[in-house]
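TICKET: design request
STATUS: open
ATTACHED STRUCTURE:
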C-alpha cells in the first residue's frame, strides 16, 4: 500500500535550459556588519546576518535544518481550505502542537493570486492537490519542471520532475507526458483545473471525462482515476471546451492520434494514471517552484537571466540542500528598503548559497511574499523576523516548516534578566526569569513562586523573593533554581554617580500638551544606574506649566519659555522648554543627498525640481514620479526614503507638508520612528484623499504617547485599488513640525487671512476649483484671463470634458492648456468667443463679460437690480449686470459705478463665483 503523496503539480515540461556561470566568484554579499546565530532546537539553527558592500546592504536570514537529527523534520504547510491564503506566522501557529513544535517557517512556492492556488507542482502524501499551468516561457521563474521535496527516505531533494500519464479503456491504451500546456502538432495533452479551456482546433480529437472517481481532490500519484466520456469531438469538428470541475479533457492533434483514439465513444469508462519519476516516487511531498539556482555546486539558473526578475535587486527566498540531502537550509534576503536592505539578484543569491554549502538550490516565491518566522528561545510560537517589503506579511499559499518533534520535558537551562545598569545603594530591583528551556530547547512555563532565589553575598545585596535589595557598593551573583535548571546573573552595586542624563534634554511643546521626562544617572564609564526614582526632585522655572513627582510635564495655556529643573542630592540639571513654539521646518528639500527612491510593485523616480517647476519655498522641491501600472498585483507604493532619519525636535502634535498634487486621488502617508526605534505609520491624507491639483498643505497627526525623540524615515504615495493604479507626479516642500493644533498655514504665500477675498479664495481652493500658480501664489490683483475663467467655471460645474466638439477658434488648438475647458463651456453656451474665429484666451475677462458668463452658467433670473451710473440701458450686458445685482452678487463700487469694461481681477472673480455658489 503506497503512502499518500501530496503534490501540487504546477510545472512546465519544457526542456530544462541552464545558464551556467561556473564556480569562480567573489563573495556576492560583501563585508559582514553584524551576525547572530542561535540554535532554536537540536536540529535547527537560525542565523541573521547584515552584509554591506559597494552601496548595497543585505539583511539575510538562514534556517539551517539537520534532517539527520531524529527529532527534526522539514514539512510543508498548506492553508485550510487549500484554495485560500494565509500569512506565514499564522500557518506556523496552526501547525504548532505539543510534540510537534514549529521552530521556523518561510513562504514557499509561487501562487496565483486570483485562484489562490500554487502555480507549480506540489505533492503531499501521494495526493495530487493541483496540476498547475505550463504556459510559461524562459522569462518565467517557473518555466522549468523543477521542484524541492522530501523523498520517501526522508532526505531533501531538488530535482526535475517528470510525469507519465497513462490513458486506458477497453480498446485504448496510450501514454503522454503533456499536461496543461498548448497542444502542438502531433501531441496528446491532458487538461485539468485550473486550466480554463483546451483551445483546440479542427485538427483535434477531444474527449471530456466527467464524474471522475476518486474525486478531483483525492487523486493519488500512481493510483488509477476513472471517469466517463461525457462529450467527444472528432477531427474537423472544431473542439475546444471548458475544463470540467469534476474531470479532465483529453485532447490530441492529428490523424495518427485520431486513429488511436477512434474506439473511444460517449459513455465509455476511461482510466487515467499519473506517475512521477523515481526521485519523487512515494515522496513525502514535492513542491514545484523555480528557477533552479544551483546544480552540483555550480550556478545553474533555469530562466532568462536578462529579465528584470532575475537581474534586479529584489527580496528573495530560496532553499538549498547539500550533497547528502541531510542538510537543508532556507535563506531569505530582504529588499526594496534603502538603508536597511536592498535585496539580491538571482546570480548573487546562487553564489551566496554555494558559499554556504549548497549542492543544489532552488528559488522560492520572493518579493512581497518573502517572510521568515522563528521560534526564539523562550517563545512558544515562531514570530516574524524579517522586514517584508510591503510593510507587513503577505498571505501566501504554501509554507515550509522546520519542526522539532519532541515533547516538552523538565527545565534544564534558565536565563535571568533585570533592568540594564548598575544598582544604586538602597534600590530594589526585580530579577526576572527570561525563559527556562528543556533539553530540546522547548520553553518551560515557570512560576516565580516555584523558583528558589539566592545572593552569594548578602552584605552587598540580598533577595526578597525575586527582588534584589542593594545594601552596599560591590558585586554579587544572584542565583535561581527551578526543576533541573540553574540561572545566574551578576549584579553590581554603586553608591555614587558622575552624571545625570535627562531625556529629552530640550523641549518644544504645544500649549496644554504633556510629556514625561526620564532621568538616568550614569557612572564614570557612561553606563546607566538603576536607582529609586523617589530621590529625584522635579521643578519648573518660569510660567511654562507644571511637573509631577514622576516627571510628567504639562504645558501652560499660554506660550512661554523657561526650564525644567532636576535635582538629585547635590546635582542639578536644567532643561530648556519652549511652550507654544512656532512650527519648525525640519526638511527644506533643497538637496537630494539624503533622499532615495524605493518601490513596492511600482516604478519610482526621485529628483529635485527647481523654478519654474512647482516650488513652494526656497529654490527647490522634491519631485516624486510614480508608476503603478506594473504587472505585479497587490498594494502599490512609491517611497521617498531618508537615508539618515530626519530628526524632529521636541514634541509636535503634527507634521505639516506642502504637496503639489496631481488630482489622482491616492493615499499620502509617512513612516515615523520613535525614541526606542519603533515604526509608526502616519497619514497626511485619508485613503483617496490626495485629490487636488496644485499646492496644498497637509497635516499628519502624531500619536501623543510616543517616546521622544522622533524622526521621519519615509514619505510615500500608495494605492490599494487595482482600477486606480495609474501614474503621476507629486512635489514635496517645507516639511515642518507643528506644536499647536490651532496653527494655520497660509494657503497662498501672497494672501493672508486679512485679505478681503481670503474666504472666497480659500473656499474655492478647498473645492479644487482654484489651484494657484506653481510658486504657491494666487496673485489676487492680477487680471483673470478668459481661459482661466473657462477652467474655473468648468471645474465648479463639473462639466464633462471628453468628446466635446471643436469650438473652431483659430487662436486656441487642442494643445492649449485650457482647450478642453474652453470646448466644454463653448459647447454648453456659457462662454462665447470674441468672434466666430477668436476666443482670445489670454485677454482679460471684463466685468461685463463676467456678469454675462455667471448669468448663463447658473441660469440666474431677475432684472430689478440697481442701476449703475456707468451702465446705460443700451449696454449689451445691462440686463446681465442687473441680474447679478438682483441676486445680491454685486453692489458695484462705492461711487455707484460697476466698471463694465474694467478687467476682472482674480480676487474679484473668486468672490463673485463664491457668492453665486452659495
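STATUS: resolved
RESOLUTION: sequence designed for all positions
ATTACHED SEQUENCE:
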Amino acid at each position: 500500500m503506497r503512502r499518500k503523496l501530496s503534490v501540487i503539480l504546477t510545472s512546465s515540461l519544457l526542456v530544462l535550459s541552464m545558464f551556467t556561470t561556473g564556480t569562480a566568484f567573489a563573495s556576492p554579499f560583501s563585508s559582514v556588519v553584524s551576525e547572530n546565530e542561535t540554535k532554536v532546537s537540536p536540529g535547527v539553527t537560525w542565523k541573521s546576518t547584515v552584509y554591506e558592500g559597494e552601496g548595497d546592504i543585505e539583511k539575510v536570514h538562514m534556517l539551517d535544518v539537520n534532517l539527520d537529527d531524529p527529532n527534526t523534520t522539514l514539512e510543508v504547510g498548506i492553508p485550510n481550505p487549500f484554495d485560500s491564503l494565509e500569512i506565514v506566522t499564522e500557518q506556523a501557529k496552526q501547525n504548532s502542537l505539543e510534540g510537534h513544535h514549529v521552530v521556523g517557517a518561510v513562504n514557499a512556492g509561487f501562487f496565483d493570486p486570483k485562484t489562490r492556488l500554487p502555480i507549480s507542482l506540489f505533492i503531499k502524501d501521494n495526493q495530487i492537490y493541483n496540476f498547475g499551468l505550463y504556459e510559461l516561457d524562459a522569462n518565467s521563474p517557473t518555466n522549468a519542471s523543477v521542484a524541492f521535496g522530501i523523498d520517501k527516505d526522508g532526505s531533501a531533494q531538488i530535482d526535475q520532475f517528470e510525469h507519465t500519464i497513462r490513458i486506458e479503456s477497453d480498446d485504448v491504451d496510450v501514454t503522454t507526458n503533456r499536461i496543461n500546456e498548448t497542444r502542438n502538432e502531433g501531441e496528446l495533452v491532458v487538461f485539468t483545473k485550473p486550466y480554463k479551456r483546451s483551445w483546440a482546433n479542427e485538427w483535434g480529437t477531444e474527449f471530456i471525462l466527467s464524474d471522475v472517481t476518486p474525486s478531483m481532490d483525492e487523486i493519488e500519484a500512481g493510483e488509477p482515476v476513472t471517469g466517463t466520456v461525457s462529450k467527444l469531438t472528432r477531427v474537423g469538428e472544431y473542439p475546444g471546451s471548458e475544463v470540467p470541475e469534476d474531470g479532465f479533457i483529453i485532447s490530441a492533434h492529428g490523424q495518427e492520434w485520431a486513429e488511436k483514439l477512434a474506439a473511444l465513444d460517449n459513455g465509455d469508462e476511461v482510466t487515467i494514471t499519473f506517475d512521477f519519476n523515481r526521485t519523487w516516487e512515494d515522496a513525502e511531498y514535492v513542491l514545484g517552484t523555480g528557477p533552479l539556482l544551483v546544480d552540483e555546486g555550480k550556478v545553474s539558473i533555469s530562466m532568462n537571466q536578462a529579465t528584470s526578475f532575475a537581474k534586479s535587486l529584489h527580496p528573495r527566498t530560496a532553499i538549498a540542500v547539500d550533497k547528502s540531502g541531510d542538510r537543508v537550509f532556507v535563506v531569505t534576503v530582504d529588499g526594496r528598503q534603502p538603508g536597511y536592505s536592498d535585496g539580491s539578484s538571482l546570480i548573487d543569491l546562487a553564489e551566496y548559497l554555494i558559499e554556504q554549502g549548497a549542492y543544489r538550490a532552488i528559488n522560492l516565491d520572493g518579493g512581497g511574499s518573502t517572510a521568515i518566522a522563528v521560534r526564539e528561545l523562550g517563545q512558544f510560537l515562531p514570530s516574524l523576523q524579517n522586514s517584508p517589503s510591503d510593510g507587513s506579511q503577505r498571505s501566501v499559499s504554501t509554507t515550509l516548516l522546520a519542526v522539532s518533534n519532541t515533547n516538552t520535558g523538565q527545565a534544564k537551562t534558565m536565563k535571568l534578566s533585570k533592568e540594564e545598569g548598575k544598582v544604586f545603594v538602597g534600590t530594589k530591583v526585580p530579577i526576572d526569569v527570561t525563559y527556562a528551556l528543556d533539553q530540546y530547547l522547548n520553553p518551560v512555563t515557570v512560576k516565580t513562586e516555584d523558583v528558589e532565589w539566592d545572593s552569594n553575598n548578602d552584605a552587598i545585596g540580598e533577595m526578597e523573593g525575586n527582588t534584589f535589595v542593594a545594601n552596599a557598593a560591590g558585586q554579587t551573583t544572584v542565583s535561581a533554581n527551578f526543576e533541573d535548571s540553574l540561572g545566574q546573573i551578576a549584579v553590581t552595586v554603586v553608591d555614587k554617580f558622575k552624571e545625570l542624563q535627562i531625556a529629552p534634554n530640550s523641549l518644544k511643546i504645544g500649549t496644554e500638551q504633556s510629556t514625561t521626562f526620564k532621568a538616568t544617572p550614569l557612572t564614570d564609564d557612561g553606563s546607566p544606574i538603576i536607582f529609586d526614582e523617589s530621590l529625584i526632585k522635579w521643578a519648573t522655572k518660569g510660567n511654562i506649566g507644571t511637573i509631577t513627582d514622576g516627571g510628567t510635564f504639562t504645558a501652560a495655556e499660554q506660550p512661554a519659555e523657561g526650564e525644567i529643573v532636576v535635582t538629585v542630592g547635590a546635582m542639578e540639571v536644567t532643561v530648556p522648554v519652549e511652550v507654544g513654539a512656532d512650527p519648525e521646518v525640519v526638511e527644506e528639500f533643497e538637496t537630494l543627498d539624503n533622499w532615495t527612491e524605493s518601490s513596492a510593485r511600482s516604478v519610482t523616480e526621485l529628483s529635485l525640481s527647481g523654478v519654474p517647476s512647482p516650488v513652494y519655498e526656497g529654490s527647490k522641491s522634491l519631485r516624486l514620479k510614480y508608476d503603478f501600472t506594473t504587472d505585479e498585483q497587490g498594494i502599490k507604493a512609491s517611497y521617498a526614503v531618508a537615508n539618515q532619519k530626519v530628526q524632529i525636535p521636541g514634541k509636535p502634535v503634527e507634521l505639516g507638508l506642502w504637496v503639489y498634487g496631481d488630482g489622482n486621488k491616492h493615499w499620502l502617508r509617512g513612516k515615523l520612528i520613535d525614541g526606542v526605534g519603533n515604526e509608526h505609520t502616519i497619514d497626511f491624507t485619508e485613503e483617496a484623499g490626495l485629490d487636488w491639483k496644485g499646492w496644498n498643505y497637509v497635516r499628519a497627526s502624531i500619536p501623543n504617547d510616543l517616546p521622544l525623540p522622533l524622526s521621519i524615515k519615509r514619505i510615500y504615495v500608495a494605492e490599494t485599488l487595482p482600477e486606480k493604479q495609474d501614474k503621476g507626479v507629486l512635489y514635496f516642500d517645507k516639511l515642518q513640525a507643528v506644536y499647536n493644533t490651532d496653527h494655520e498655514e497660509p494657503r497662498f504665500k501672497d494672501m493672508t487671512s486679512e485679505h478681503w477675498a481670503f474666504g472666497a479664495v480659500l473656499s474655492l481652493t478647498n473645492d479644487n476649483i482654484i489651484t494657484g500658480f506653481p510658486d504657491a501664489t494666487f496673485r489676487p490683483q492680477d487680471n483673470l484671463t478668459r481661459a482661466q475663467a473657462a477652467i474655473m467655471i468648468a471645474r465648479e460645474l463639473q462639466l464633462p470634458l471628453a468628446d466635446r466638439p471643436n469650438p473652431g477658434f483659430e487662436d486656441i488648438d487642442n494643445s492649449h492648456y485650457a482647450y478642453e475647458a474652453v470646448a466644454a463651456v463653448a459647447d454648453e453656451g456659457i462662454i462665447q468667443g470674441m468672434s466666430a474665429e477668436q476666443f482670445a484666451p489670454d485677454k482679460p475677462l471684463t466685468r461685463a463679460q463676467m456678469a454675462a458668463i455667471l448669468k448663463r452658467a447658473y441660469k440666474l433670473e431677475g432684472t430689478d437690480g440697481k442701476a449703475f451710473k456707468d451702465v446705460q440701458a443700451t449696454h449689451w450686458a445691462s440686463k446681465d449686470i442687473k441680474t447679478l445685482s438682483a441676486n445680491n452678487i454685486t453692489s458695484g463700487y462705492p461711487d455707484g459705478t460697476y466698471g463694465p469694461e474694467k478687467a476682472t481681477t482674480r480676487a474679484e472673480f473668486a468672490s463673485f463665483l463664491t457668492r453665486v455658489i452659495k
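CLOSING REMARK: The longest strand covers residues 636-648. The chain has a mean pLDDT of 89.
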